[in-house]
Amino acid sequence: MTIVWAAIMLGVLIFVHELGHFLVAKKAGVGVSTFSLGFGPRLIGFKKGETDYRISAIPLGGFVRMVGESPSDEVSPEDEAKSFSHKPVGWRLAIVSAGPLSNIAFALIAYFMLMLVWGLPTLTTQVGDVLAGSPALEAGLQKGDTITAINGQPVSQWTDMVRLIQGSGGKPLSVSLARGRDQRTVTIHPREEETTDIFGEKHRVFRVGIVASQEMVIQDVGLGQAAIMALKKTYWAGELIVMSVVKIIQAKVSVDNLGGPIMIAQVAGEAASQGLAPLISLAALISVNLAILNLLPIPALDGGHIFFFLIEAVTRRPVSVVMREKAQQVGMVVLILLMVFIFYNDIARIVGGGSQ
After folding, report:
1. Hey, which of 74, 126, 162, 261 has its CA 20 to 30 A from 33?
2. Could you tell me the residue ranges of all domains in the chain?
3. Which CATH code is given to the segment(s) 122-218?
4. Higher pLDDT among residues 36 and 333, named by residue
């Protein structure tokens, strides 16, 4: 079932990506000869009009093959009107950009539906543990306490409480809490500590030494708030992915953290076992991932094509066919090497029991 769920999720995301290319190409009047999910030999499909819709043997992506896709393609005079290469650069930019933008749109819709249908899961302010030697322990906090206010400001969400603690500047906090039926107020002196984020960078923050209990409440979300939260979650997902790429380039995050189809299958299986909502949330995150990685200026990816078309738009002349073909070859080598490395990482995780 893990493989099934991963195949369904990736199939949907690839379909969304290629559908973006396809729809804008048709809008521009470009002929499309093939719409394929997967690469390699054709397994099944059907032909409608001039387009062969197919599922191919290697499920590691997909493609839309257009008439005159490459400037080196031979196009008959009668087909020039529907040739990709003969379209204005603005249309070519729109067609190539449509794939990643469709993945962004999918994430926005997915997050919007999650907020609207399932609501917003939020950690409460219940204390799950109090760390030894911490300011909270010195002030008398106990596991199971629920913090109700800080400096007179009511709090019901863990994130709001963290924001007030970290923004205290180390000044004493008047913390109101509920312990069973008892209400009490204690004074806690936050302590500045060094912490390491997911990118390995160190920060100084103020903490009191409490751990969340993982008790959740579901907040109902209206249409407007769902739309705002969808935008925020899509932005946060994109920011996380961009920062991850930057930190890998800066060698601040190990390339051993890169994962491929096997890792995605494992994560998809775990998400599916927890319900439909976690699976949709994972699909939205991976969709943003696909969009951003496809926008990298690597010649074999959408971002590489966009880069060349932007040069053409500025210089008013296309990049030479020879240069583009050489760049494509280099890009393909880079992608193949990266794919081999990612598969190696995936297999190493399995052989090593999930560790590096």
Report:
1. 261
2. 2-119+230-351, 122-218
3. 2.30.42.10
4. 36
Closest CA to 318 of 85, 19, 47: 85
8-state DSSP, 118: I
- Computed over every residue of the chain, the mean pLDDT equals 86
Q: Report the range of poorest mean pLDDT among 2-6, 164-168, 287-291.
A: 2-6
H/E segment holding residue 113: helix 89-113
One of 18, 192, 201, 239 is an active-site residue; which one? Answer: 18
DSSP H or E run through 102: helix 89-113
Query: CA 286 to CA 9: how far, in whole Å?
Result: 9
Contact call for residues 190 and 208 (beta carbons, < 8 A): yes
CA–CA separation, 92 and 310 (whole Å):
10
Which has more pLDDT, 242 or 351? 242
Residue 106: closest CA among 283, 328, 298, 320: 283
Task: Give the Å distances, CA to CA, from 337 to 39, 144, 341, 343.
Answer: 17, 51, 6, 10
Give residue 356's pLDDT. 36
Predicted model pTM: 0.82
**β-strands 127-130, 210-212: how paired?**
antiparallel
87 sits in the region (left: phi over 0; alpha: psi -120 to 50; else beta) called: beta
**Chain Cα centroid distance, residue 328:** 26
Kind and range of the H or E run holding 121 = strand 120-123
Q: Crossing angle for the helix pair 276-294 and 261-274, nearest 10 degrees?
A: 150
Q: Which amino acid, residue 324?
A: R
- Residue 211's DSSP bridge partners are 129
- The structure tokens listed for 104 are 């962004």
Q: Look at residues 219, 208, 221, 220 and name the one whose alpha carbon lies nearest to residue 147.
A: 208
| Predicted pLDDT at 9 | 87
* DSSP label of 318: P
Find all residues with CB under 8 Å of 50, minimum gap 6, and list them. Answer: 31, 32, 33
